[in-house]
Protein 1
Amino acid sequence: MTYADPVEIARDAGKHTHHFHGGLRLRHNKRISCRVPVERPPLPDILVVPLLQHAGEAARPLVETGDRVRKGQQIGRCKAGVAVHAPTSGTVETVEDRLMTHASGMTGPCVVIRPDGKEQWVELEPINDVQNTHPDVLIKKLQESGLVGLGGAVFPTHIKARDGRERQIHTLILNGAECEPYISCDEMLMREQPDKIILGARILRHALGAERVIIAIEDRMGAVQEALTYAAECAECKRITVVKITKIYPEGGERQLVQVLTGLEVPYGGRPSDLGLLCQNVATAAAVAEAVTAGKPLIERYVTVTGNGIAQPRNLLALIGTPFSHLVKVCGGYSDNVARLVVGGPMMGYAVSTDATPVVKAVNCILALTQRDITTPQAEMPCIRCGECSRTCPAILLPQQLYKQIKNGWWDTVEEYGLAACIECGCCDFVCPSHIPLVSWFRYGKDELRQRAIAKQAADLARKRFEAREGRLLQKEHERAEKMARRKQMLKDKAKSKDRVNRANGNSADA
Ligand code: SF4
Ligand code: SF4
C-alpha cells in the first residue's frame, strides 16, 4: 500500500483542514436561540408519533386504540428498520393516518397517545460493561432503541454501524458543524452535554472497531472545543480529537466535511466508508450513549425553536410526537407578523402549512419567519448562462445544465449530469440572478426519476410475468401435441398388431 492510497491519506483526517468547491458565507443568526439553557417543556395534551421516522419502510404498529403504554415501550416495529417507542406513559387514543412532518405533505400511519402525566417507564435494560460487550450486541441495541442519524438524513444508525464495521473503517467523524443559519441545537448539546457526546463517541468507536474519532465543530463555537476536549480528557480518551473548521455553508454536508478534513472527494456514487471514514452527527452520539448505558430509546431530541416570528427563541428538549404549536407556546407564542413556518433551516428546510404537525426524529429546527425575512417571489426569468450557480455548487455540478435537462424532460440523459449528487443545499438558488427556483426543479427531477424507476420496475416485472406465462402456455401446447402424437402412434400400432393377428388367424383357417 502506498501513501497515494486514498484510504491511507484519509488516516490523516483532521491534521490539516482543506476547502471544498463553492459554498457560501451566510449570516448564521444563531445567537438569538442560544441565550438561555435548554429546557424540557411540560407534557403536551396529545402526542402524535409517526410510524415512519427513518429512511426505509414504516414500522408495523404493536398497539391499538385503548391500549395503555409506558414510557419507552415499543409501539412500532419493522424487520430491517428501527423500532418506534412511546415518548411517555398514557393511553393510545387512535392509530390512524395523519399529516406527516415531511416536505411531501403526505399522510402516514401514526400512533396518537394521550399522556397520563405519570411518566412511568418500561423496565430499562442498560448495558453496563460496554468495553466487554460484543459489537454485534451493541449494534442490535441501537436498532432496538430506534436510533437514526439525527443530522437530518435519519438513516438507521445500526445499518450504518454494521456497514462501517464490515468495511473496517479507521476513523469515525462526529459532525458538529451546524452550518445552516438559525439552527443551534447541536451547539447547545455540545455546550451542555459534552460528556454524553464523548461517551457516545467511545461506544461507537468500539462498535465500529475504529482507531480514532474526530469531532468537527465550527470555529465560531467558542467554548465548545474546550468543553469537548475537557470531557475527553476526563474520560482518559486520547483517541478523540476536536477539530475546528471554518463556517462556510454547507460544510456540514457529509461529503463536504470529508473533503474539509481530508482534502479528498468521496467518489460519485460512493460513500465515506470507501475512504475508511464514517460520519455521524454529535446528537446521534449522545443518543447512542443514552441507549446503551441507560437503556433509554430515542424518544426525545433537542429542537431549536427560532426566527423573528417567535417571541422568545430558544432550544427545547422535546418529546417525539409533540405538536409544533405546543413548543411555540412554550417559547412565548408567535410574534404578530409571522408569515411562514419552516422545518429545518432557511436553506434546506421546507415550509409546513400547519403547526399541528409533530416533532419527529428528523426535526432539528422550527423556524418562524416574518414577512420581512421572506423575499417577495420574483418572476422566473430565462437563464443568462452567467455560471454563478456552478461556481457556488459544492457538489461540483452544472446546475444550469441540470435545469435544462429537467425542464425539457430529457430523462434519459439527466443522470449523466449527476442529479443524484445534488445535496439540495440551495446555494445555486441563492445566487441565481434569474430567480430560477433551481432546487425545486432538482427535487422535481429526482422525484420524476424515482417514479420512472418504480414504473420501469413494475413494467419489467409485468413483462417477466407475461413471458413466463407465454412460456408455460407454449410448454403445455408442446406437451399436448406430444401426447396426441403418442396417442396416434399407439392407435396406429394397435391397428397394425390387430391387422397382423387377423391376418395370422386367416392364414391358419385357410391351412
Ligand atoms: S445562476 Fe441562474 S442564470 Fe446564471 S447560469 Fe445558473 S441558472 Fe443560469
Ligand atoms: S442545490 Fe444541488 S445543484 Fe444547487 S448548489 Fe446545491 S448541490 Fe449544487
Protein 2
Amino acid sequence: MGVTVKISCTCCKAQWQCQIGCGITHGELKQVTALFSEDVQKEIKNCIGEAMFPWFDFHYQLSYCKQCNSIESIPYLDLGDSHTKFIGKCAKCGQETELIENIENLPCPVCHEKSLIAEETGSWD
Ligand SMILES: [Zn+2]
Ligand SMILES: [Zn+2]
C-alpha cells in the first residue's frame, strides 16, 4: 500500500499532494512497465531478457520538476543492479525531474526557502 503525503511550505503556505510508494497493481512487472514511455518499455524488456520472475522494486517517489516548478510523484523502477534503474518523467510535462532525497533539503519551488515539510495524510492502493 502506498501513502499520500502532503508537502507544505511553512514559509509561503504552498501545498502539494503526492502519492508515493506502490499499490496492489504494481506487484506485476507488466503493469509497472506500462507506466513508462515506449522507448523505456523496450529497454526494460531488454534488461529482463528471458527471466520468468525477474526481481524488481517499484515505487512512486517524490521528485522536483523544474519545468512545472512543482513537486510530483514519478515512477521509479529498480531491476536489481546499478545499470537498471528506470526513473519516470514528470506526468504533467514529460520532462526529466530531480528525485528528492530529503524534502528538508529542497528549497520550496515557490519561495525558495528551505521550509518544506511532509506529512502523511492517507493511504492508497
Ligand atoms: Zn515556500
Ligand atoms: Zn513537469
